[in-house]
Design brief:
The complex is a heterodimer of chains A (about 110) and B (about 575).
Chain A (H helix, E strand, L loop, with lengths): L4 E8 L7 E8 L6 H11 L20 E4 L2 E4 L9 E5 L6 E3 L2 E2 L11
Chain B lengths: L5 E10 L3 H12 L4 E4 L17 E2 L10 H11 L6 H20 L6 E2 L2 E2 L12 E2 L6 H14 L4 E4 L2 E9 L2 E9 L5 E11 L20 H8 L4 E2 L4 E10 L10 H8 L2 E3 L22 H13 L9 E4 L5 H8 L1 H8 L9 E10 L2 E2 L12 E3 L16 H22 L8 H12 L9 H15 L3 E2 L1 H18 L12 H25 L8 E2 L14 E5 L2 E5 L3 H4 L2
Parallel strand pairs in B: 1-2, 1-10, 2-7, 10-17, 18-19
Antiparallel strand pairs in B: 3-6, 4-5, 8-9, 9-10, 11-16, 11-20, 12-15, 13-14, 14-15, 20-21
Helix pairs in contact in B: 1-4, 1-10, 2-3, 3-10, 5-14, 12-13, 12-14, 13-14
Chain lengths: ~110, ~575
């Protein structure tokens, strides 16, 4: 029996009008988070993917907010599933690159 | 294309925005200094503080009589003869004042009968550890300090700002060089004083309990600026980190507060109590010190009596559903969402990298050996000796943060405006301006490789052969990393960020492994299977310095060097 996989269809780019979707298969294990899949992907397939996370698992830092099939989720608590999952940057925040958006309050941002 | 460098000028630069950095900023601003906080993650979100679900030790004496000297005695006993006594004294003396100040800021310490409630954590002789329900201490602390910071006009702050090196001019620290992760813009910060509050090094290990950004940045920055590190061999492993079943949305050290409140039984793979074999009988209570519990679990697994995923079982099956609900309220629902019912099943736990006792050498004003450079929180080395007492990590973030902020503000009053020092900043500026074409190395895989090396060969149980193998692996990674970062002006280029992370992580990993190799005894968190006994002549600190790219570890007793 071949191991089950999840397909992550991920929005890539730094211009909302000129992006693309890249699809990747990642190993699926029961109970894993979407962030587990994204971290596996960076180590094993494509380190150039940009994503924002800090606490990995605790849902304490609240940095890993992304769109999953059109809904806003935390990647660390959304479950990975053995199907195609579409991941996008948050629609209402300034895009930085790939899945990363500007989510800090204005007073806590770097201002050149 | 790399954007043009941005210059910032301030009185006090605080690097890091966990509890130590935020408290330092508040203290410095209260004393009239202008402050700039830089964090490589978002302000108050990365780091260890926000993850701390547990307790804070302070001799408040509200529920039972207590005094800082009793807290000090327990701290020094846990440190196995190696605590830096002035730092431990400061920690215990100032802790109650910081706890009450946070209380006045509305942090919401749990209360019982009108008093701030305290629990007894392992190693404490009485109830001394305060907390915020339900397992919400760290987030509550972080939010409270961020609110205080936001009320101070003298404090400016920037997240996504990665500091790459400190600037040293005429023997004094005059600022730092970094870059803005979001845009790639180089940043030069001139300051009259700098406070390092970047936390520990748990990211060096595969399984760890802290955030992804805790790669020992402060240790590396201080080393390269010429400061000494001490006690780098002492990495604390938290014995009962969550192992299985897969649990999302919870901190892996969450079982600690469960044990404070409910006891719980630690069992081997055969569902037998086993800690008595290693010199401590738990009897359903939570009394076993961290280094002893880690030892007991690892040895049980080695003897073939581990749980299925290679740890131990932790069972709360003796607790009723009602008592679990009373103690942890909504957390029980979060466990249910992960298909975990504690009345019906044990969970599996195993040691997990948690905290670093070593760090930058500092005096009780938080000054380092480099004038103008101060340290706070987990960056400070020596306070906890060979083993930190439960509950002292947030305490040291508060106490040392506040002291460092005060000391930095004092220096500001007697220091002329900093010179920009372009010559001294040149090397670091060249690094953050480097514009490399091509894909670059797989830095994410290199981080994973380093974590595997450290977990397998520089974990809680060490041998000379394993440590030599680790040092060879670290050297190979350093050679593969090269001298120039990949990428250019791309926004949020994680490969470039990881290159700078690895530059720090690799030198810090070397400092840990070399110090561990040289300490030919077992003490607290440093256990050598080839030198299994604590040796009186090793009751001394080792010091690490960086000279011409080489790390020198000094301090070994003459008797050991003669071997």
């Amino acid at each position: 029996m071949s191991a089950r996989t999840a397909t992550l269809k991920i929005w890539r780019g730094s211009d909302r009008n000129a992006g693309r979707f890249d699809s990747y298969e990642v190993p699926f294990e029961e109970g894993q988070s979407v962030l587990d899949g994204l971290r596996w992907l960076r180590v094993n397939k494509d380190p150039s993917l940009a994503l924002r996370f800090s606490c990995i698992n605790a849902n304490a830092c609240k940095e890993c907010m992304i769109g999953l099939d059109g809904e806003t989720v935390y990647a660390c608590t959304a479950r990975l599933e053995p199907r195609e999952m579409t991941l996008t940057p948050l629609p209402n925040k300034k895009l930085i690159r790939d899945l990363v958006t500007e989510i800090a309050p204005p007073s806590e941002r770097f201002k050149p | 294309m790399i954007p043009a460098p941005v210059s910032i000028e301030t009185d006090v630069l605080v690097i890091g925005s966990g509890a130590a950095g935020l408290y330092a900023a508040i203290a410095a601003a209260r004393a009239g200094a202008r402050v700039f906080i830089a964090d490589r993650s978002l302000i108050g979100r990365g780091g260890a503080t926000v993850m701390a679900q547990m307790t804070v030790a302070a001799a408040l004496g509200e529920e039972v009589p207590d005094a800082p000297r009793h807290h000090y005695d327990d701290t020094v006993a846990a440190g196995r003869g190696l605590c830096d006594e002035p730092l431990a004294q400061l920690l215990c003396d100032d802790a109650p004042e910081c706890i009450r100040e946070l209380d006045s800021w509305g942090v919401g310490w749990a209360r019982r009968d009108g008093h701030i409630a305290a629990t007894t954590a392992p190693g404490h002789d009485r109830p001394r550890c305060v907390y915020v329900d339900f397992i919400n201490t760290g987030p509550a602390v972080s939010k409270t300090l961020r609110t205080q910071v936001a009320r101070k006009d003298l404090i400016h702050k920037a997240g996504d700002l990665c500091i790459v090196d400190l600037v040293v001019a005429d023997g004094e620290c005059t600022g730092a060089v970094g870059y803005h992760v979001g845009s790639g813009a180089p940043v030069v910060i001139a300051a009259k004083a700098v406070v390092l509050a970047t936390g520990g090094l748990t990211r060096l290990y595969r399984r760890n309990s802290a955030s992804a950004n805790m790669g020992g940045d402060g240790y590396a920055l201080a080393l390269r600026a010429g400061c000494a590190l001490i006690d780098m061999e002492f990495v604390q492993f938290f014995p009962i980190g969550h192992l299985a079943p897969r649990l999302v949305g919870m901190d892996p050290i969450m079982w600690d507060p469960f044990r404070y409140k409910l006891g719980g039984r630690l069992l081997n793979g055969r569902m037998e109590e086993f800690t008595s074999r290693y010199g401590s009988d738990e009897d359903g209570k939570y009394v076993l010190a961290r280094d002893l519990a880690t030892y007991a679990i690892v040895k049980e697994v080695e003897a073939g009596r581990g749980s299925p995923h290679g740890g131990a079982y932790l069972s709360f099956q003796h607790c009723s559903a009602a008592s679990l609900r009373a103690a942890f309220g909504p957390v029980i629902d979060r466990l249910a969402a992960n298909n975990i019912d504690l009345t019906a099943m044990p969970v599996e736990v195993a040691p997990i990298a948690h905290y670093h006792m070593g760090g930058v050498k500092a005096d009780a004003t938080m000054a380092t050996q480099l004038p103008g450079l101060y340290v706070a929180g987990e960056v400070v080395g020596g306070t906890s000796g060979a083993n930190r007492l439960s509950g002292n990590a947030l305490t040291e973030a508060f106490v040392f943060g506040r002291r460092a902020g005060n000391s930095a503000a004092e220096r500001v009053k007697r220091t002329a405006p900093p010179k920009p020092g372009p010559q001294q900043a040149r090397a670091a500026l060249d690094l953050v301006r480097a514009d490399a074409a091509g894909d670059g190395a797989n830095t994410a895989a290199m981080v994973a490789r380093l974590q595997a090396i450290m977990a397998d060969d520089v974990g809680p149980f060490r041998t000379g052969a394993k440590l030599e193998r680790a040092l060879a692996g670290i050297a190979a990674l350093a050679a593969a990393l090269g001298e120039q970062p990949p990428g250019g002006g791309l926004g949020f280029d994680l490969q470039r960020l990881e290159w700078f992370d690895l530059r720090n992580m690799l030198v810090v990993a070397r400092a840990v492994a070399q110090s561990a190799l040289q300490r030919c005894e077992s003490r607290g968190a440093h256990q050598r299977e080839d030198f299994p006994h604590l040796l009186p002549h090793w009751r001394r600190h080792q010091t690490v310095r960086l000279r011409d790219g080489e790390l020198n570890v000094s301090g070994a007793p003459a008797a050991a060097l003669a071997i």
